[in-house]
Amino acid sequence: MSPERAGQAPASGSASQGADRSTTEWERARRRAEVFGEVLPEITRDERDEGGRGERRDGDTWLREQVPPHHGG
After folding, report:
1. pTM of the prediction?
2. CA distance 7 to 73
3. How far apart are CA 5 and CA 70, in angstroms?
4. How much is the pLDDT for 62?
5. pLDDT in tens, 31-49
6. Distance between CA atoms of 26 and 34, rounded to whole angstroms?
7. Which of 7, 8, 10, 43 could form a disulfide with 14 if both were Cys (CB 3.0 to 4.6 A apart)?
8. Hey, which bits of the chain come out as E strands?
9. What residues contact residue 71 under an 8 Å CB cut-off, 6+ apart?
């Protein structure tokens, strides 16, 4: 940046440049989502319907099933 420009007032079109910048940020975010996908899911696991999973087991049942035979399971 030249010293002459440093002391100048912003150009009259700077407000529209700010709007262009926000549009550019939105476009960047959209392109990033197209490439990498969404960072967070729209619906979390606790909000999903659990109806189609079949039999639900509690943690103790799963833990007992994981005990190796040489540990008295």
Report:
1. 0.26
2. 80
3. 80
4. 84
5. 888 888 766 667 777 787 7
6. 12
7. 10
8. none
9. none
AA identity, residue 62:
W
3 state DSSP class of 22: helix
Q: Residue 38 is encoded by which pair of tokens? A: 């969404």
The total number of residues written for the chain in this structure: 73
Are residues 73 and 67 in contact, defined by beta-carbon separation less than 8 angstroms?
yes
List pLDDT tens digits, range 5-41: 555 555 555 555 555 667 788 888 888 888 887 666 6
Which residue shows structure tokens 């700077």?
14
**Separation between Cα atoms, residue 37 and residue 52, nearest integer Å:** 26
CA-closest candidate to residue 25, choices 17, 14, 37: 17
Confidence of residue 57 (pLDDT cuts 50, 70, 90): low
